[in-house]
Amino acid sequence: GIRSGGNSFSNFRYYIGRSVDAQVPARQPVTCVTICAIAHPNAGRAGRLPSMDLHQFLPYRINILDESISRCIAQVYRERFGLSRDEWRVLASLARGGPVKTAEVIQATMLEKMQVSRAVSGLQARGLLERSADPDDGRGWLIGLTPAGRALFQKIAPMVLARETYLREALDADEQAVLDRAIDRLGQRARQLLRS
């Protein structure tokens, strides 16, 4: 079997590449499907589905938590200020500094290019955001908040931060520190799988 204790992800990839299962050819590129096939060698065989409790499945639990928290935050920016989720993400990402390239907003918000484009158009129509030609890219744009956009962010930020504080108060200081580290480590592992 695959030992998890102490093995780095790079060693794990090498181990998989050496074919721990006869079904997986040596040096096969590592993918989520490859890993799942090794973890559940009987997956897909008639009558032998792997046992899995959806409500204990980590990605599902995180997704449900994310959706619940997102709805709590949306009560502020959507119901009180009429912003969509994507518009709020773009607004918040731009509040950190001056005009930036569209690609930087896409990276910061984890939104698709079309989602960012629609959010930018919506914010611009409300006078909250402005676009200017990118001097380094004749086809690109720099986008930044207008004074009205910054004023709106300054209204919303204390409200959503208060909700974050309320959520964090369910944990003591040590638990919050563990949670922050766990989120960082899970994020690193997820990115490693995406790059594999």
Give a description of the structure.
This protein is mainly α. The protein contains eight helices and three strands, in the order ααααβααββαα. It has helices at residues 9-17, 32-39, 58-77, 85-94, 102-109, 113-125, 147-168, 173-195; strands at 100-101, 129-134, 137-145. It has a three-stranded antiparallel sheet. α4 (85-94) crosses α6. The radius of gyration is 22 Å and the shape is globular. The chain starts with 8 loop residues before the first helix and ends with a helix. Mean pLDDT is 82; it is low at 1-35.
Q: Strand-and-helix sequence, N→C? A: HHHHEHHEEHH
Strand order of the largest sheet: 1-3-2
Helix and strand composition category: mainly alpha
Please state the overall shape, judged from the principal axes of the Cα atoms: globular
Mean pLDDT: 82
Count the helices. How many?
8
Strand content: 5-15%
Major sheet details:
3 strands, antiparallel
Total beta-strand segments: 3
Radius of gyration: 22 Å
N-to-C CA distance: 21 Å
Helix content: 55-70%
**Uncertain regions spanning at least 5 consecutive residues:** 1-35
Layout: helices, strands, pairs:
Blueprint: H1 9-17, H2 32-39, H3 58-77, H4 85-94, E1 100-101, H5 102-109, H6 113-125, E2 129-134, E3 137-145, H7 147-168, H8 173-195
Antiparallel strand pairs: 1-3, 2-3
Key features of this structure:
196 residues; mainly alpha; 3-stranded antiparallel β-sheet; 8 helices; 9% strand
Offer a quick outline of the entry.
The chain has eight helices and three strands. It has 196 residues and is mainly alpha-helical. The longest helix has 23 residues, at 173-195.
